[in-house]
Structure formats: structure tokens, C-alpha cells
């Protein structure tokens, strides 16, 4: 959480340079709109420990100095990309014209601000009658039953303990829905980069055996999950949503599992596979012309967004 909020005003009162004391901060005379905001923030500060005091920034009228770079497509775009790669002054002009260097222009206004290195702000205990989390929980309990249900990790764990269902049965029910290697592909396979059936069933069988023996590893044992195609996982390629293969090469018998995969497996979770993502994770749309773009399952006219598009779908 930032230590201060800079309030930039452009009303007539803010056009006059404010008086400063020797320290340059103490005697700024803020306009009325800033005073109103200050009163509101003081009410907020009463609810938190260590809440920072907001300071009004210098009154700088807004001025849009950014230019508009021309839209390019086709061969013109190819030539422009080549020129930017080899002619540094074109690259510098495009960068500057788009306003990427704008922050440098306000350096003199912020370089003397005292940075806050520990943004820890703790809320005071809230009266339970006013706590939104409690109110939401109570309203959820009173809500009408829905025709469908999303199963939580706690739901799976409870059903496994009771014997109502097993991790192996859950894995077998989900796999046909997410596999790309079947004809036709699974109904929800667009969200999945790859699934190794043998690995999944082996993990599910081991989890089922632990529950039968009364020795589950914990609340995540047997819970189905997945990882983004950005993390290394034994038996899977790592492509970052691209055509390239970035899988780490190791000696036979060595593991390439990333830390998060190791922790999931040590908890007994059943990793169903790898999820789709925006190519190289370089945008927020989730669009991927190589492996397909996951759509919103409830409205196919929209993407799930990205770069974790498969995770948003799953």
C-alpha cells in the first residue's frame, strides 16, 4: 500500500503556487476538494493500525504531451519492425512519442518524497455484526439451493473420507472432458495444453489407496488440480503457450518439477495436466492461435482473459 496519495488539482485555486515551510511540506494550503478527501481518509485511518497519512502532491495542471504512433499492418509493419530493430533513432522516437519516458519528467516532484519500505497496514477487529465476510456467509447459508455446485477442496476431502466417492473415480470422470488426444476432443479440452492419462490415474490410485488405509496426507489429498504451461512438470513439455519447447533437459531419472508442482504432489493433489495460456504470457486477452483460445464457459462470445486463460476456464 503506498505511503501517500498525490492529489493533482486543476481548479483555479490550485493554479497559485502553494506556500511551503522550511521542510517543504508542512504548510501547504490544500483546496477544498483535498480537504474533503482528507476528512474521508481520516475516517478510514481510524479503522486501521499504521495507516499512512495522505499528503497532497504539487498542483500540476494536466497536460497531455503524448503523441499517437501510426497504426501499421501487412508489409508496412514488417518493414517498420525491421527499421526499429536496426535503426536506434527510430526506436527511440517511437518510445518517446508514446509517452514511455513521461515518468522522468516528474522526477523533480517525487524524488524528495520519503519512501515507505514497510507498507504493513493492519485492520482493527471489526464488529461481527458489520463484518462483510460474516454477512456474506450468513446470506449464503440462507440462499436457495442451486441446480449445480462447484466442489471445493473441502467438499472433495469430506466425500473421500466418507467413502462417497474416490479420487480415482473423480479422475476418471474428468479426464474424458479435458483430453485433447481423443476423437473428438473433450468438451472442455480447449483449456488444457496437455494431459498425461497414465500419470493422472497413477496419482489418483495412490490417493484412493491412502484414504482406504485411513492415511490421507491432508485436506488436498486426491483433490483435482492443474498447473499453467509455464511451470516445469515431469512427463510434460513446457512451451509457454508457443510452438517452442522450453523443457529443461536433465539426466534420466532426475526431476524437472517446479517448486509449486512439488508442493502439490507432496500434499497428494491429483494434477490433471497443464493448462493453456496466452503465447509467452505476453498479453491479457488469452488469445492463442496455436492451441486455441479458451472462451468464457458461460458466454462463448468472450475470452476468459489471460495470460492464465486455461486457469480462468478450468
Automatic annotation (TrEMBL):
<dbReference type="GO" id="GO:0003824">
    <property type="term" value="F:catalytic activity"/>
</dbReference>
<feature type="domain" description="Amidase">
    <location>
        <begin position="192"/>
        <end position="314"/>
    </location>
</feature>
<feature type="region of interest" description="Disordered">
    <location>
        <begin position="1"/>
        <end position="39"/>
    </location>
</feature>
<dbReference type="InterPro" id="IPR023631">
    <property type="entry name" value="Amidase_dom"/>
</dbReference>
<dbReference type="InterPro" id="IPR036928">
    <property type="entry name" value="AS_sf"/>
</dbReference>
<protein>
    <recommendedName>
        <fullName>Amidase domain-containing protein</fullName>
    </recommendedName>
</protein>
<dbReference type="Pfam" id="PF01425">
    <property type="entry name" value="Amidase"/>
</dbReference>
<dbReference type="InterPro" id="IPR000120">
    <property type="entry name" value="Amidase"/>
</dbReference>
Amino acid at each position: 500500500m503506498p505511503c501517500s496519495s498525490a492529489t493533482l488539482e486543476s481548479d483555479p485555486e490550485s493554479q497559485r503556487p502553494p506556500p511551503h515551510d522550511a521542510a517543504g511540506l508542512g504548510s501547504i494550503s490544500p483546496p477544498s476538494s483535498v480537504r474533503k478527501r482528507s476528512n474521508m481518509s481520516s475516517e478510514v485511518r481510524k479503522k486501521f493500525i499504521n495507516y499512512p497519512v495522505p499528503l497532497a502532491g504539487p498542483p500540476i495542471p494536466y497536460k497531455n504531451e503524448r503523441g499517437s504512433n501510426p497504426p501499421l499492418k501487412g508489409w508496412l509493419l514488417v518493414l517498420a519492425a525491421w527499421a526499429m530493430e536496426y535503426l536506434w533513432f527510430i526506436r527511440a522516437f517511437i518510445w518517446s512519442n508514446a509517452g514511455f519516458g513521461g515518468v522522468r519528467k516528474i522526477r523533480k516532484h517525487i524524488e524528495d518524497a520519503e519512501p515507505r519500505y514497510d507498507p504493513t497496514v493492519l485492520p482493527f477487529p471489526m464488529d461481527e455484526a458489520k463484518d462483510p465476510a460474516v454477512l456474506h456467509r450468513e446470506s449464503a447459508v440462507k440462499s436457495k439451493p442451486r441446480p449445480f455446485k462447484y466442489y471445493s477442496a473441502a467438499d472433495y476431502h469430506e466425500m473421500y473420507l466418507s467413502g462417497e466417492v474416490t479420487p480415482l473415480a473423480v479422475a476418471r470422470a474428468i479426464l474424458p472432458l479435458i483430453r485433447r488426444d481423443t476423437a473428438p476432443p473433450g468438451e472442455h479440452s480447449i483449456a488444457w495444453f496437455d494431459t498425461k492419462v497414465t500419470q493422472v490415474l497413477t496419482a489418483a490410485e495412490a490417493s484412493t489407496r491412502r484414504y482406504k488405509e485411513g492415511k490421507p496426507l491432508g485436506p488436498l489429498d486426491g483433490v483435482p488440480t492443474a498447473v499453467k504451461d509455464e511451470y516445469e512438470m515431469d512427463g510434460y513439455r513446457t512451451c509457454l503457450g508457443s510452438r517452442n519447447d522450453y523443457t529443461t533437459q536433465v539426466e534420466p531419472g532426475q526431476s524437472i518439477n517446479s517448486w509449486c508442482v512439488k508442493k502439490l504432489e507432496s500434499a497428494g493433489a491429483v494434477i490433471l495436466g497443464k493448462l493453456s495460456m496466452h503465447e509467452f504470457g505476453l498479453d491479457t486477452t488469452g488469445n492463442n492461435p496455436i492451441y486455441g483460445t479458451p472462451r468464457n464457459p458461460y458466454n462463448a462470445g468472450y475470452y476468459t482473459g489471460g495470460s492464465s486463460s486455461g486457469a480462468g476456464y478450468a
